[in-house]
Amino acid sequence: MEIFFFYEFDEDTGITTPYQVDEQDLSPEEFEFFNDTVRKVWSSKEEEWYFSIQDVLKQLTDSTDVKQYIKKMRSRDPVLNANWGTICTLVVMPASDGKLRHIQAATTEGILRIIQSIPSKKAEPFKIWLAKVGKERIDEMADPEKALDRGLSYYKEKGYSDEWIRQRLQSKTIRDELTDEWKRVGISDSKDYAMLTNILTVAWSGKTVQKYKQYKGLHKENLRDNMTNIELTLNQLAEVSATAISKAKNPSDISESKQVAREGGNVAKTARKELESQLGYSVISPLNASDPAALEIKDNDK
Prior knowledge:
- By secondary structure, this protein is of the alpha+beta class.
- The chain has 2 domains: 124 residues, no CATH class; 137 residues, no CATH class.
- The protein has 13 helices and 6 strands.
- The chain has a 6-stranded mixed sheet.
- A hairpin with a 4-residue loop joins strand 1 and strand 2.
- Helix 7 packs across helix 8, helix 9 packs parallel to helix 12 and helix 12 runs antiparallel to helix 13.
- The longest helix is centred in the C-terminal third of the chain and has 26 residues.
- It is elongated, with a radius of gyration of 22 Å.
- The protein starts with a strand and ends in a 23-residue tail after the last helix.
C-alpha cells in the first residue's frame, strides 16, 4: 500500500497544507494523477490545480536539462513566449530538499497549452485528446442534443441512478433560465455570475459555494454533481425563485440583482428549515459522488 501527498495553498492565510491519499481509495485514473512524479498544489481560493511545469516536462520529454528545454521551447513558440508570464505562476511547493519553495507552475489550461509546444512522442496522446475534445465541442455547438447524450452517458457510467440523472438535467435547464435572466437585466461578467450564485447558495444552504465544497470533500468537482436529490431540489427552488423574482422586480443594477438572489435563496431556506424540522436532521449532506447511488435519498434514509 502506498500513500501519496498533494498540497493545498490557502491565499488568505499563506499556509500550504499537505494531504495524504491512500492508494486503496483511488481509481486507476486517480492513482496515476496522485502519483509522486508531478508535484501539484490545490489553490483553495481559485479552485484550480497548479502543476510543476518542470515535472510535467520531465515526464513528457527526454531532456536532461529541463530549464534549457523551457528556454528552447519558448524560443520556438513566440506566442507561448509572449504569454509565458500569464501561463506561468510561482507557487509554493516542496523542493528536492524537502523544503517549501516557490516553483514555476501552471493550471490545467496552462499545462495543456505548454504541451502543444512539445515535439515529443510522449506528448502526442495529450495532443490527440485535445483535438478530440475540440471536435466534440464543435459538434455539440452545431447539435446541442449531442451534448445532452454525452451528459447522460457520463452520469450513467459514473453510477448515478436514472432518477437522479433526470433531476440533474432538469437543474441544468433551471440554471440556464436563471443565467438568461441575468443576461436580460444586463449582467454578463462570469465573475458577477459566480458572485450571485454564491449569494444565492449562502441564502438557502447557509454555506458559501467554497465552504459547501469543502464540507463535501471536493476540489475542482462540480458541486451540483455531488448534491443529494434533496439538495438539488432546494437549489432548484432557489434558482427558480430568483428567476421569477427578477422578472417581477426587473432589477436595474448588480446591487438590486444581489438582493433578488438573496430573496430567491431565502425561499428555499424557508423550505429547508421546514423540512429539517419534520425530519429532525440537516439535509445539507457531506455525501459526494464517490458513491453516486447514495446521493438519491430514500424516504427511510437519514
